[in-house]
Amino acid sequence: MTTVILDSEAITALRKPASAKGRAVLAALEVVPAQRKRRRINAHAIVPTTVRVEAHWNRRDPAAATLNRLPILDSTLTSDIANHASDIVESTGVSVADAHIAALVATSGQPVVVVTSDPRDIERASAPHRVRVIRL
Questions:
Q1: Strand partners, 47
Q2: Can you give the residue ranges of every domain in the chain?
Q3: In angstroms, what CA-CA distances link 27 with 31, 50, 90?
Q4: Least packed by Cβ within 10 Å: which of 41, 49, 98, 123?
């Protein structure tokens, strides 16, 4: 696993890091620095920008300071990813944010872990690509 993708429920959980869900997300994020050190690979945690919108995470908001300190990179909705996500929405009916996640899974070229409260939607939208899901 080299990429950890967070959905909106994961972002919401991180707002309460002492909660059970918050601790689960933080545990998933611990994989990233461990893999970087152990395997010397480019492991990273990302949040699709559509997920940030859905989770109301405005990086300029002072209330987001705690979230902003975490090593989570934005993954923007590029034209190619938007086209892929649009096809996923049309074929599966998942939300735009879930389709953005699935499009990133499909185009990553490497193993992906998705931290989500909707494992069925992510697995269905990501098919036939393999994805490891951590359920919140």
A1: 74
A2: 3-135
A3: 7, 23, 34
A4: 41
User: Helical H runs in the chain?
Assistant: 8-14, 20-39, 49-54, 65-69, 79-92, 96-108, 119-126
User: Can you tell me which residue has the tokens 């951590």?
Assistant: 134
- Mean of the pLDDT values across residues 88-109? 97
Q: Which of 136, 110, 106, 109 is nearest to 123 (CA)?
A: 106
* Backbone phi and psi for residue 6, each to the nearest 5 degrees, phi listed first: -105, 135
Q: Which CATH architecture has domain 3-135?
A: 3-Layer(aba) Sandwich (3.40)
1 pLDDT above the threshold of 50: no
Tell me the pLDDT tens digit for each residue of 23-69: 999 998 887 655 545 555 556 899 999 999 999 999 999 999 999 99
* pTM of model > 0.85: yes
Sheet with 72-75, strands from edge to edge, namely 72-75, 44-48, 3-6, 112-116, 132-135
Tokens read off for 74:
């934005």
